[in-house]
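Take a careful look at the protein record below. Let me know whether the structure tokens fit the sequence:
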Amino acid sequence: MGGCAAALLLARAGARVTIVERVARPEGVGAGIALAANGLAVLESLGLTPALASARPALAPRITDARERTLLTPPDTTPRIALLRRATLLGVLLDALAAEGRITRRFGTTLVRVTPDGDVIVRDADGDHAMHADLVIGADGVHSRVRECGAFGAKVHGTGIRYLRALVAEGFATGVEAWTSVGLFGAFAVDGGTYVYASCCSRPCRDALQRRDLEALRAAWGKAYPPAARVLGAVDRFSDLIVNEVQRVECQRWSDGALVLLGDAAHAMAPNLGQGANSAFVDAAVLLDELRRAPALGQALAAYERRRRPAVTRVATAAGRLGRLADATHPVVRAIRPQVLRLAGRFDGARSAAMVLQEAPATLVAIGRA
């Protein structure tokens, strides 16, 4: 997602861009996504808002316990979000890439190696090919190949927490995020369906995932939170679930010569503030802004990191803390969750929103339109 946005922003600023993507047909990948005001601002700057008309405007979710008692209602100052299928958003971005004459798309192509000087070897069905780039953006996720090729001082931290995501038919939305004894569970309406997500923290849930046993997973969730059993009953096969471990990425530096990291490749975080893809969109806009401002590439990349690292670190830290609280299975921690959330609800909502969004949406719109 962030790589697509970066390509579009750079191309519309006059650069010639080549996208290298391992997947031959990347459309249709993923479950659902929540776009926050910062991500929406970047997409607006690219003129893509009309193509996202199917997105469902929503408030940040109300948090309940397993007995459906409210633990936290987001304050009125909380920015609205837009919910949609990830495939819908990806399709809009791919269509925009195809329509941009300055972008060359190389799908079904893997990165073999890249040097800090910008020398690139890629491999497709016809063999290996050499390329050269003035700038190589690694927007290739947690297991970034670009990051592996450079000196970024990266550490990938596994959390042991596994999340499942799925798309099911319309009519199964709960409209809340439930924090239970086995993890959190949410089901929200998206275009033409229901986006389901859940963490699996208890032993029965983890064992069910390990065995790929959908019935056992339904039973474990149904015991802890009955509405989940109904929603998971709409999943036909275990293979319809997308299951991933939550991983964090920390890098000592985000650039190495002509190489620079963006999104999860630089700063993968817990999903609990919904800022993974949104932060990648912000990265793309800020990178373009600093490339315009600086007289030399190295200065631009250093300025990009100085501007982004503190903001994204604050968000990643907050998301991690929220995730640990939401995913706690110890009875003592679960007992104090309501008090912790009540305290959180007393914080200045406007300041908290600004922290999460990282850059003012108006600034992000202006960058893309400049």
Summary: The longest helix spans residues 297-326. The chain has a mean pLDDT of 94.
